[in-house]
Amino acid sequence: MTPIVEARNITKRFPGVLANDNVSFSLNKGEILAFLGENGAGKSTLMNILYGLYSSDEGEIEVHGKPVDIQEPSDAIDLGIGMVHQHFQLVPVFTVAENIVMGTEPTQFPFSWLALGIASGIVALLSFIGSMVGLGGVGQGLLAALAGGGIVAGFYLLFFILGWFSSQKAQIYIPVISAIGIAGGVTLALSQGAPGEIPLYIFLALLFGAVSYPTLRVLATALDRQAATRRIRELSEQYGLIVDPKAVIEDIPVGIQQRVEILKTLYRKADILILDEPTAVLTPQETEELFEIMQTLVEQGKSIFFITHKLKEIMSFADRVIVLRHGKVVGETTPATSSEEELAEMMVGREVSLVVEKEPATPKEVVLEVNRLCAEDDRRQAVLRDVSLSVREGEVLGIAGVQGNGQTELVEVLTGLRAATAGAFRILGQDMTNATPRRITELGVAHIPEDRQQDGLVLPSPVFDNVVLNTYYKEPFAERAMLQFDQIHEYADHLVKEFDVRPPNAELLVEALSGGNQQKVIVAREFSRPIELLIAAQPTRGLDVGSIEYIHRRLIEKRDEGCAVLLVSVELDEIMALSDRIAVMYEGEITAIVDADKVTRRELGLLMAGSHIEKIHQ
Amino acid sequence: MTEQQGLENSFKNRIAAWPLWARLTSLAALVGIAVLSSKWLILFLLIALGLWPIMVLLGLGVLVLMSKSRGGWPWMKDWLKARLRQLAVPALSVLAALVIGGLLIMFTDQVVYQTIGEGQIGKGIGMGFANLGRAYVALYQGALGSPIRIVSAIFQAIGGEGIKPILGAVRGPSDSLVQSVPYIFAGLAVALGFRAGLFNIGAEGQIGVGWLAAVIIGFSFPGLPGFIHLPLAVLAGALAAGLWGSLAGILKAKTGAHEVITTIMLNYISFRLSEWVLCGPLEDVQGTCRTKEILSSAYLPKFLEHPVTMHWGFMVAVAAAAATGWLLFKTTWGYEMRTVGTNPDAARYGGMNVAKTYVLAMLLSGALAGLAGVSQGLGITHNIALGFSAGYGFDAIALALLGKSNPVGVVGASILFGALRAGAARMQSLAGIPTEIVQIVQSLVIVFIAAPAIIRGIYRLKDDDSESGQTVFSRGWGS
C-alpha cells in the first residue's frame, strides 16, 4: 500500500537556524502519526511546510503517490489537507456556520448560476410583456440587457462545469464575466436597435448588470448558507463533532471552538488532518473528547498528523511516533514498543526523570491563612465561595480542579490583583485582604502567573528589564529613582546563567525566547529574591518535558528551603507529583483537602467532577 | 563597541569619583561658559547648518581618525551601515515626497496648462521644470540659506564688515530652527504619551492652554526682574497645560474613558474657552481678539540681532528632549511608564500603580505640549490672539511616529518639519508656490513613514525588525 503522504529530505533554513534538517516521514491511510519534540524542535515548521505556509528549501512531498508542489494553503486544501492551528483562526463575532463557510462562499454551490438563470427568465418574461403592450423601445432594451445576463449565466454555467469556481478565483472571475456579458448585450442591442435609442439600451444593460450581480449574490449566499448549515449538521453527526451551527464563536468554550476548526477542514473535504498541539488549550475532559473524535475520524478513513510534546497523549492513542530534536528525526517508534521514559529521553537527548523525587515534608509555621474568602469574576458572578485553607512553611499545597472553577480568581485575590468581596486572608500573620500587589510582593510573596505572556512578562522588552519587573524601584537596582543599569545588567546576566535561560543573553527581547525559556525568566525573577510564600499557577503549562522537570525540581528545592508553596494546576499528574496536601476546588468552593499520599488518581478525578469525599469513601 | 564603552565608562568613573561639590561647580561653570558664549555658539551652529556638506565631510574625517584606533575601515563601514540603515526609510520617504510634490508644482500651474493646451507640449514641460527648479531652490534657501552667500558673508566678516552680513545669510537656518521649537515640544509630548500607551491627540488644546497661561503671567507682573519673571511664566504655562492634560489621564484612570475621545473633546473645550477669553475678559483693544503684549522681562531672549530670530526656546526644547529621554529610559518613573505602555497587566502584576502612571504621563505630556505654546508666546508673538492654533499639536502625532517615539528622533523630525515650514514661506514669496504644496509634502512623508513597505518596495530595501516605535503606537488604540 502506498502511503497517503510521503515526504523526503525536507530541509528548511531560517536566518541562523536550521529548522528542519533532512526530515523524511510517511503517513498511511487511517493512521494517527504523532510528532513529538521539545518546543522549537521544528514540528510546527514541518507541518507548516506541508500546509503551504512555508516553502521548504529542499526536499519533496508526495500526496496519494503523486509528487506535489504546495505553494500556499489553497494548494494544500485542494489536495485534501486541512490544518487546525494551535491558535484558532476564527472570527469571534461570527456564528459557527459563518466561520466554517468563510472563504469557500459563495459559488461552491450551484445556486449562484441557478438564481441567475431564474432572474434572466423573469427579465425575459417582462420584456416579452413589454413588447406585447407596445413598449417597443423598452422591450428591445430589456431584450438586450437579457442577452447580457444570459451570457453571464452561460459563463457561470461553463465555469461551474469546468470546476473553476474555487474560493479565491471566483472573486476575480465574477466581475470579468459580468463585464463580458454586459458588453455582449450592448453589442446585440446595437446590431438590432435604432441608433437613436442606443444610449437607452446601454443604460438598461448596465442597469441590469449593476442590479443583478449584488442581488444574485445576496440570494445565492442565503441559499448557500442554508445548504452549508445542512452540510455542517451532516458532518457533525457523521464524525461525532457536536456543535450548534448558529452559536456565536465567542460564546462557546475553547473545546467546542476546536471542533469548529476540525469541522472547517472536513467541510473543505480534507482527508488528511494536521492538528498542531491541539491539547495545549484543553481541559482533561475536553482532551478525552478530542481523542474520541479523532478515533471516529480515523475509523471513517481520515488520516491525522498530530503534534505534541505530551508523552501521555502519545502513549494513549497514537499509532506511530516520530521524535524530532533540533530539526532532525531522532527516532521512530510505536507506543506499544516503547515507554514514556524512552520517548522522553529521545526527545530531550538525555535521561529525564519523570518522577519528582522529594523527601517527606516537614511543615512548620502557618504562612498563608485564608478564611472564608469570597470574590466575584469580571461579570460580577460569585466565583469564590467561602474558601478557607492554610499553607505552612515547608509544604506544598496543591489546588486541583477543572479549569474555570475559581482557581484563577483565588490566585488573583491572594496576589492583590482582584478584590475580595468577603472574608480575609493573612500572610505571615498580617492581614493582607485587598492590599496592593506591591505590599504583598514586598512581604515576600512570589507569584508565577497563569498567563505568563499576559501578566508575567513585558514581551517586547529585553530580559534584563523583565527580571526586575517587581524590584526595579529598590536598591541596588535604583537609587533615588535613578535606575542603576550596571547592577541590573550584572544581575540579569547572573540569573540567565543560573537558571539556564537559552540563549544565554540578557539583552534579547523576551518575545524572542521560546515558551519554556520565557517561563524560566519568570521563575528566575521570582525565586531570586527572599520569599516566604510561593504562589505558582499552571507553572508548566505548554512546556516540554525538560523544562517541566527543571521547574518541578526548583519548586521542591524552594519547599525544602522552608518556603510555603501554593500550587495551582489543572494537570492532575503535576498536582499528585508535587503536593504534600491537595485541596480540590469545585464551582468556587474547596470541596476537600486531603493528604497527597492517601488519595488515588480516581478519587481526585471524582472530587474534581463534583462528588463529595464521604460519598467516595462509602 | 566594547572598547568605546570601556572608554566612556572610564571617563564616567573618573567624574563619578569627584566629590559632589566639584561636580556641581564644574557643571555650573560649563553652563555658565555656554550661556556667556551662547551668541557665538549659535552663530557657529547656524553657519554649520547652512554649510552642512562641509560639516558632513568634517564628520567623516573625524570618523576616519577614530577608526584608526578601532579597527580601521571595517569598523567604520559597520558604523556607517548601522546609522544609514536607521536613516534610510525616513530619508528616502522625504525624497519620494519631494518628487511627488515636484510633480504637483510642475503640473498645477495655469500657464503650463495653457501652453500645453496650445499644443506646445515641449515648451510647457520645460516651463514646468523651470517652475520646479525655482520652487525648490527657494525652498532650500528658505530652509538652509544659500551656502554661497554664507561663505561670502564670512569673507566679508573677516574683511572687517562685522557680523551683519553673516546674520543676513544665516536667516534660513535660523528660521528653520525657530519653526522647529514648537514641533520639538509637541512631538515630545505625543512621544511620551505613546511610550506610556496613551494616544494624546489633545496636544493642540494643551498648547493653547500653556500659551495663554504664560502670556497672562507675562503681562501681569510689572517690575519683576527677568530672571524671576521668565521662569515663572514658563513654569505657569507648563503647569497649566499639564493640569489640563492630566484631566484626560484622571478620566482614564478613574472611569476608563479612552484618552483619544477625552483629549479630542478637551481640545474643543480649550478652543472655545480661549475664544471667549480672548474676545472677552482679556481682550486688549476692542475688536482685535488679542491680549496685551507681555512685558519685556518675560521675553524669551534672542541670541542675535535682526533678522536672526533664534531665541532661547530652542535651547529649552533641546534640554526638554534630553530630560524626556533621561526620564523615560533612566529613571524608575520612566520604567513604570514604559511597562504600563507595553503591558498594563504585567505592570499591575509588578506592583505598579497603573492609574497613577496614566495621570502622571498625561501631566508630563500636557506640560511638554504647553511648553510649545509657551515658546511661541514668550519667544515670538509676545501675546496670544484668536486663531493661535497652527496645527502643531496635530503634526506632533506625525513627528512622534517619524521619530519612533524616541526623543532624539523627535528632535530630528522636528527640525526637518521646521525646515520645510520655513522653506515653504520663502517658496511662496519668491516662487509664488502655495505653502499647501509643502503641507502635501509633509503629509506624504508621513504616509511613507507610516507604511514603510511602500518605501522598501520602491527602493528595494531589505526588511528590518526594528519597528519598536510602531508597536507602541498601535497600543494606543488597542488598550
Please write out the topology.
The complex is a heterodimer of chains A (618) and B (479).
Chain A: E1 5-14, E2 17-27, E3 32-36, H1 43-50, E4 58-63, E5 66-68, H2 73-78, E6 81-84, H3 96-101, H4 111-132, H5 136-162, H6 167-192, H7 198-238, H8 254-267, E7 272-276, H9 284-299, E8 303-308, H10 311-317, E9 320-325, E10 328-333, H11 340-348, E11 366-376, E12 382-392, E13 396-400, H12 407-414, E14 420-427, E15 430-431, H13 437-442, E16 445-448, H14 452-456, H15 463-466, E17 478-479, E18 482-483, H16 485-498, H17 515-527, E19 533-537, H18 545-560, E20 564-568, H19 572-578, E21 581-586, E22 589-595, H20 601-608, H21 613-617
Parallel strand pairs in A: 3-8, 3-9, 6-7, 7-8, 13-20, 13-21, 16-19, 19-20
Antiparallel strand pairs in A: 1-2, 1-4, 4-5, 9-10, 11-12, 11-14, 14-15, 17-18, 21-22
Chain B: H1 2-16, H2 20-36, H3 38-50, H4 52-68, H5 72-107, H6 110-117, H7 121-144, H8 147-161, H9 164-169, H10 171-195, H11 203-220, H12 226-255, H13 259-279, H14 313-330, H15 332-342, H16 344-349, H17 354-381, H18 392-402, H19 407-431, H20 436-450, H21 452-459, H22 468-478
Summarize the structure.
The complex is a heterodimer of chains A (618) and B (479). Chain A is an alpha/beta fold.
Oligomer: heterodimer
State the total count of DSSP E strands of chain B: 0
Specify Rg of chain B, calculated over alpha carbons: 24 Å
Instruction: State the helical fraction of chain B.
Output: over 70%
Strand order of the largest sheet of chain A: 6-7-8-3-9-10
Keywords:
heterodimer, A: 618 residues, alpha/beta, Rossmann fold, 6-stranded mixed beta sheet, 21 helices, 21% strand, globular, B: ABC transporter involved in vitamin B12 uptake, BtuC, 22 helices
